[in-house]
Specification:
Blueprint lengths: L20 H4 L3 H26 L5 H30 L7 E4 L4 E4 L2 E4 L2 H10 L3 E2 L5 H13 L11 E3 L2 E2 L2 E7 L2 E12 L14 E13 L6 E5 L3 H15 L4 E5 L7 E3 L5 E3 L4 E5 L17 H4 L5 H27 L1 H7 L1 H26 L3 H23 L6 H17 L2 H24 L4 E2 L14 E2 L3 H18 L12
Parallel strand pairs: 3-14
Antiparallel strand pairs: 1-2, 1-5, 3-9, 4-7, 5-6, 7-8, 8-9, 9-10, 11-14, 12-13, 15-16
């Protein structure tokens, strides 16, 4: 635009005010959820300070300091990072994964073309083994193997996220029989129609790094694997193993895909890379079935096919309620003279009130276990009020007994479990399923008749129900299959890092 001068002095004309914005796009329930998410973070910091205040120059002080470290490292700091990273990190593709606490994880340094079976077959042929999914049993086994220096060739890797999804699967190679050192690579499928910057089409993205030791995270002080800083060496090693095993595999490289940089991953480990992105083509690999290990039964995860956080919240509520009842009984037994002053009627009133509260909490915990969203929110309100009162009393001068701090810690863990992403997704999924079923029954003009419960723990399964019309029944079964697949597509992202 050169040449002619504008006939009038330029005047900035601001656009009309845009109504709506971020808050208008968020459901009221989501705002409440985010509020409790932040409240749990604040409570965790206060509880850590309360534990620190209880420390004395005795052996017991070491236990309080250990509790302070555990609360800060595994509860307070990860949630603080989740809140802050949600504010300043973009949610679109920038060539980096995201850790469970929201921080930047390992860089994407590999791309693949081919289907899932071909990738699994290629990795299997190259001498790689698939990592176990991270669950309670695998986590305990990983800790034991690290402490005893025993081999664990299929040890799980911690969840990293890309496209808001956890890795679909991961492969690894243990080094010298040590669980502390290993090669490993995670894989994510690309969304349909998605292209890399520059228009390159690939089917899968991967992040490969080498674990050199076990240490403390720089940002959360959790125990985690420490990776080697030169991730290009691991990237090239993965490619060499694949091409050595199958010469039909081809590789082309996108030079300078990402600017070479010095940075850190979610554990605080230094990263150095040249920014090149190799695209590995495994479409010529014969997609024969890969031997699959029999699924391991993990009771904590298999109960009712529910997320671990939901099962943990129910168990913690049960433990806290029973513990409070026992502690209350002990206090009543000790205060014999006080009982005589109050009278049996007063004691009975207290016992009835306490029993009623315990019954309500257990009922709400059970409803949450069954997928009730309202019950979960009511539980969060009651737990927040109880926990807030206990923390204020502790920080303002009262010195509670050890069992009181244990009970407070149990309530805090319950709030964390109920505000986790998996617990929120579980209740939201059940709410949607119930709405779909009511709508389907309304369209058919009939209500479902429960003939029996054949799928334990799933009151919306559709099994054992008789619906009017074969088409309606087929739709219900299809929705159930999609829902079951979605519930198990991801693990709980708020798991301690093992990688």
């Amino acid at each position: 635009m050169t040449g002619m001068r504008p006939p009038q002095r330029p005047v900035y004309d601001p656009p009309a005010k845009i109504h709506g914005g971020f808050l208008s796009q968020v459901r009221h329930v989501d705002l409440v959820e985010n509020l409790f998410f932040g409240v749990a973070m604040v409570f965790s910091f206060l509880f850590a300070v309360a534990l620190l205040f209880q420390a004395r120059l005795t052996f017991v002080s070491l236990l309080y300091l250990l509790g302070f470290w555990a609360v800060m490292s595994y509860l307070a700091l990860p949630r603080l990072h989740r809140v802050l990273s949600a504010l300043y990190l973009p949610d679109y593709f920038i060539g980096r994964t995201r850790a469970a606490d929201g921080m930047l994880g390992d860089p994407i340094n590999l791309a693949f073309n081919g289907d899932e079976q071909q990738i699994r077959r290629a990795m299997h042929n190259a001498g790689w083994v698939e990592a176990d999914p991270i669950d309670l049993t695998a986590s305990v086994r990983m800790v034991i193997a690290s402490l005893t220096k025993r081999s664990y060739t299929t040890a799980p890797v911690s969840p990293l996220f890309l496209f808001n999804r956890q890795q679909a699967f991961a492969f690894q190679q243990e080094v010298k029989g040590s669980p502390s050192q290993r090669h490993h690579v995670r894989f994510w499928p690309c969304p349909p129609g998605w292209k890399l910057p520059g228009g390159h089409e690939v089917g899968w993205l991967a992040a490969g790094t080498y674990d050199r030791s076990v240490g403390l995270s720089l940002f959360t002080f959790q125990f985690t694997h420490k990776i080697d800083r030169d991730i290009d060496i691991e990237r090239d090693y993965i490619i060499e193993t694949l091409r050595y095993a199958d010469q039909a595999i081809t590789v082309r490289v996108i030079k300078d895909f990402s600017t070479g940089y010095h940075g850190r991953n979610g554990g605080g480990d230094l990263i150095v890379t040249d920014g090149d992105l190799p695209i590995v083509d495994v479409r010529a690999v014969e997609p024969r079935p890969v031997p699959v290990r029999a699924p391991r039964m993990d009771l904590a995860h298999e109960v009712g096919r529910r997320p671990f956080s939901v099962v943990a919240a129910f168990a913690l509520t049960l433990i806290s309620t029973v513990g409070s009842l026992i502690a209350g009984g002990i206090e009543v037994a000790r205060s014999g003279s006080d009982i005589a002053e109050v009278g049996l009627s007063g004691v009975a009133s207290v016992v009835v009130a306490f029993g009623l509260v315990a019954f309500v909490m257990l009922f709400l915990a059970w409803r949450t276990y069954e997928g009730g969203e309202v019950a979960r929110l009511i539980m969060l309100v009651m737990l927040s009020l109880t926990l807030g009162q206990a923390l204020i009393a502790t920080l303002t001068g009262d010195h509670p007994a050890a069992w009181g701090l244990v009970n407070t810690g149990t309530d805090l863990l319950t709030i964390y479990a109920l505000t986790s992403r998996s617990a929120r997704g579980w209740t939201a999924t059940r709410r949607t399923a119930r709405r779909e079923k009511r709508l389907a029954c309304g369209l058919a003009g009939t209500a479902p008749v429960r003939a029996g419960r054949t799928d334990a723990g799933d009151d919306d399964a559709g099994h054992g129900e008789q619906l009017d019309g074969p088409q309606l029944l087929a739709q219900d079964e299809e929705r159930e299959e999609r829902r079951d697949g979605g519930l198990h597509a991801h693990e709980d992202p708020e798991q301690p890092r093992t990688d």
